[in-house]
Amino acid sequence: MRASEFETLRIDLIEKINGKLGEYLSGVTNSGLREAMSYSLFAGGKRLRPLLLLAAAGKEADRALPFACAIECIHTYSLIHDDLPAIDNDDLRRGLPTSHKKFGEAMAILAGDGLLNTAFEIMSGHCLINNDKTNLAVMDLITKAAGTNGMISGQVDDIYSNFSKNGKALLDMYARKTGALFRAAVLGGAVFWGASEKELRELSGSADKLGLAFQIKDDLLDITGDEQIIGKRTKSDIKNKKNTYVSVFGQSEAEDSFLMLSGDAIAEFSAFYGAGDFFVWLIKKITKRDK
Predict the structure, then answer these.
(1) Longest distance between any two alpha carbons in the chain, whole Å
(2) Any residues with CB less than 8 A from the CB of 87 and at least 6 apart, and which?
(3) Whole-number Å distance between alpha carbons of 243 and 158
């Protein structure tokens, strides 16, 4: 397929994801809660994690769609909570006022809670309907990635730990805070087509490189990015006195590490899926982002 065909496929998949997400949220009976949840969920997100899951699933993408929607709900809940005054205290997300600025802090917390629980409802309901161990295995991957030893643990360390002289600890935090959901998306998709344990281990290492490259790019964009393109405030890490890859290792090394990690991930995924596969094209597009 040509790049234009891959781009068409990407857009089609996003439309499928958004359509299904709309169906799931239509079942929220409290109109105020549904409005707040929808506001953040449909605020123009790039849908990177669900796209990765569907691309990794290949011909099993339709079967994987509910789990792709669940992982996007989890990601969006995490952004709402990240932006809260008690954490990053951001007032802009995707070019719009953050949830707590729009609806108030209490409703923002509850909207995040609603999205997290909607993700579990989607996955558990799908597992019950199909009674399929594959679905349960993917649900297990996603819930653990989002849980107390995954994303939440990473967020705790991001807030309360000091990594200014400990690069290893910083990388471990990033692997949980950001990398865990990327890894779950890649491995979850592969589970749907029956990847072996050996194949999952290989993909896991490549997914970890992708997740770290993505986070390093975030750190760089916080310094060098254009707020109009990014859709959120820059220099927020400095404002919040956060240690990042840039502050710990320096901007030059951060740029070199990003290029090395993203290059390695692309090469490894290309060897696994084939250089002309949609999944590999998507990885290349993600690593070239400017927001």
Answers:
(1) 51
(2) 81, 155, 159
(3) 8
CA distance 183 to 200: 10
How does residue 228 score in pLDDT terms, banded at 50, 70 and 90?
confident
pTM: 0.95
Residues 6+ positions from 291 with CB-CB distance below 8 Å: 221, 225, 229, 230, 231
CATH number of 3-285: 1.10.600.10
Domain ranges of the chain: 3-285
Q: Which one-letter DSSP state was computed for residue 225? A: -
Tokens standing for residue 269: 């995924």
CB 71 within 8 A of CB 142: yes
Structure tokens at 228: 């109009």
61-114 residue pLDDT tens = 999 999 999 999 999 999 999 999 999 999 999 889 999 999 999 999 999 999
CA dihedral sign of residues 98, 103, 108, 112: negative
- Asked if 231 and 44 count as a contact pair (C-beta separation under 8 A), the reply is yes
Query: Could you give the CA distance from residue 205 to residue 265 in angstroms, rounded to a whole number?
Result: 9
Per-residue pLDDT, 249: 94
Question: Which residues share a beta bridge with 92?
Answer: 97
What whole-number distance in Å separates Cα of residue 280 and Cα of residue 238?
34
| Cα within 13 Å of Cα(34), Cβ side | 11
Q: What is the DSSP letter of 122?
A: H
Structure tokens at 212: 């770290």
Among 160, 36, 180, 144, CA closest to 87: 160
At 98 the pLDDT is 97
Number of alpha carbons in the 13 Å side-chain half-sphere of residue 227: 10
Instruction: Output the six-digit token pair for 69.
Output: 């929607």
Token match 């729009």: residue?
102
61 and 54 in contact (C-beta within 8 Å)? Answer: yes
